[in-house]
Write a structure and sequence with these properties.
Layout: E1 2-6, H1 14-27, E2 32-37, H2 44-48, E3 53-65, H3 75-79, E4 85-86, E5 94-95, H4 105-109, E6 115-130, E7 133-140, H5 147-159, E8 165-170, H6 176-182, E9 187-192, H7 196-211, E10 216-221, E11 233-237, H8 241-249, H9 253-256, H10 261-274
Parallel strand pairs: 1-8, 1-9, 2-7, 2-8, 9-10, 10-11
Antiparallel strand pairs: 3-6, 4-5, 6-7
């Protein structure tokens, strides 16, 4: 079962929820893989206190211009929707590599076969193991724009694992790499907070999940910091000092204090999912 953990707003506790759910499932005997699909700022390994290893490069296709064949017609420049190619009068086109997303439109458009396929490194994927689960994460190379490419490659590594559950921890927001992370999920938990920003962004991610036809349940973190109430929430997690302590120490709450009321919530949820 592939479970997405997401939310429109940053800082609502998605990673806290994803990590504790994954560890709770593992402690109940399931084989679990946790995916950190926030390549701009991966942090699940820090919160788990786990060392990343088995680093693999992620490459992206880029065009390479063959000077001898180029007729300087400029068709590749007109074709590139990302404006990643520019051309001075009567000169060979030049690629602005950080902007290129490797779509190959310029290669297909060139009538002189003057563009061939090259590649560049856009990031890396890693793996970690701790608390009975495997974690896979991706990290985008600084200055590169293609974070969804890292997400896709991280998910491909997960396909090699014969897991009972894959828990996907998405980035904040509702942009391309969040959609890429949620693609294929059979169920999602939307983590929010009872603040105006949290409630507004909840509506955005709910619309995304609706369009993707992914069933979801809402979890309200820090549920007691305001008097606002969010209807039909699956779980409400109160503001609690022990949760903060476990977070700071890099120990999942379900390990730090198994008898904590919120830990018991995670174990109960794990049991429901395993039925």
């Amino acid at each position: 079962m592939i479970i997405g953990v997401t939310g429109g707003k940053g800082g609502t506790g998605k990673s806290f929820f994803a990590i504790n759910l994954a560890v709770a499932l593992a402690k109940k005997g399931a084989k679990v893989v946790l995916l950190d699909c926030d390549p701009d700022s991966p942090s699940d390994h820090i919160l788990l206190g786990a060392e990343r290893k088995n680093k693999k490069e992620v490459s992206c296709l880029i065009p390479v211009f063959i000077k001898e064949k180029c007729a300087k017609c400029g068709l590749c420049v007109k074709t590139c929707q990302y404006n990643a190619i520019f051309q001075m009068p009567d000169k060979i086109p030049q690629l602005m590599e950080p902007i290129c997303n490797g779509c190959t439109a310029c290669i297909l458009a060139c009538p002189h076969s003057a563009i061939t396929k090259g590649s560049k490194i856009v990031g890396w994927t890693y793996e970690s193991e701790k608390y009975g689960l495997k974690m896979l994460s991706g990290e985008l190379k600084p200055s590169e724009p293609l974070s969804e490419k890292i997400v896709i490659e991280t998910k491909k590594r997960a396909e090699e694992e014969k897991a009972d559950f894959i828990v996907v921890d998405t980035a904040a927001g509702a942009h391309c790499n969040v959609v890429a992370a949620l693609d294929g999920c059979e169920k999602a938990y939307v983590i929010t907070e009872p603040t105006p920003f949290g409630m507004s962004d909840l509506e955005v991610i709910e619309e995304v999940l609706g369009k993707m036809e992914i069933p979801y349940e809402t979890v309200v973190n820090r549920s007691d910091i305001t008097d606002n109430k969010i209807e039909n929430s699956k779980l409400e997690i109160p503001y609690d000092r022990k949760i903060i302590d476990s977070y700071v120490k890099g120990i999942p709450l379900v390990v730090y204090d198994e008898e904590h009321p919120v830990s018991k919530m995670f174990f109960k949820l794990a049991e429901e999912l395993m039925k």
